Amino acid sequence: MDWSDIIPYLPDLARGFLKSIEIALLSAATALVTALLLTLASATGNAIVRAIVAAYTEIILGLPILVLLYVIYFVLPKFGVRFDETTAGVLTLTLYYSPYLAEAIRGAVAAVPVGQVEAARMIGLGELSILARIVVPQALALMIPSATGILIGLVKDTAILSVISVEEFAYVTKQVVSHTYAPFETWTLVAAVYWVTLALFETLMRGLERRLSRFRPKVEFH
Amino acid sequence: MVDLAILSQALPAIGTAAVVTVALTLAASLISLVVGALSAAVQLGGGPIGYALSRTYVSLMRGTPLFVQLLVVYYGLPPIGIRGQAFLAAALAIGLNSGAYTTEILRAAILAVPRGQLEAATTIGLTWGKIWRRIVLPQAFVTSLPMLTAEFTIVLKSTPLASVIAVTEMTYTGVLIQSRTYSASEVFLTIAVGYILIAQVLMRLSRSLERRTRRLRF
Known about the structure:
heterodimer; A: mainly alpha; MetI-like fold; 8 helices; flat; B: mainly alpha; elongated
């Protein structure tokens, strides 16, 4: 096999790659919003709302994402709810990753020292400005490491959407392989592209974390 | 909308496939544990080359989709003379993928063993091998147990991906039945419950293991 056999298909692969990025960005945005809603629901809601959020989280923790995808794409239509492939994919990624992201948000908010909030109250800051100027800026920086790991999982799982024919990177690769008859080489190349992209994403997030935590006092706890 | 007759016909096949799912989970977890332990050992005690090797392995496995790794392994095996072994390919791919996370879990657990204990052990004249066998590893195992069982729950949740290379585990069996009978709701809701049940068993096992090993902590 000659690697040059892949060259004519590079534009196709690039198209699939961009579609993957698009789905990943869209799903990450909807998942983050849903996660925020889940966090708020379990923080302020009544007992019933909290129980529903807890049950939902428990189900997602035990359910493989591929099975969730099949349920949304094949089972829901039987009950009259029908989505096109891309919507089903984005919905799956959102439903699957939002409980994990909610946990990251909850953990980050809990890690902001309670003494700071008390001190802010003492000096007469309103609840809203405590949230906006003390809790959120610090929680944002604190949640980045865990959120990055979860979002990397989300990006990688866009490849699974190929099983319902979403024309993303892995799906296009499968089609290219059926032309080149070079599965090993083509998949290795695609793996390398994922690797570089995610390494870049990780570096970006680390930079963002540094930027967001530039006001944090350097305190040694040990 | 849910036909019980179809469900009762499909159940035996799904039950058999559940056994394959459990077997695949166990095989991949075992590979993950062995590879993870080796990789962690090489990273901490293998000099700069061992460190670089282990870090590259971890980064590569965590930076590419398991879906892609599965296909690379599946299509990479025939050229080295292993053909038609979808189960082996799936166990290897999932195990190697999870091994990267196991590396990190074990590395953290080993580094969490208090330095003072190592210094004390050296002072009373224990050899390097004995320090590892009797002081570092037992404690690292106990501290990493909850994380490891969580990792093996993730392994369980990765096994449906083996359906893309036609391993007849639970999800692929579901797809086959569904394409024959068009009974998506019966089949996929059943296997969804199946996974949640197996995951619950795993999580309970993990909690009881954690309780039982707690007395081993110092």
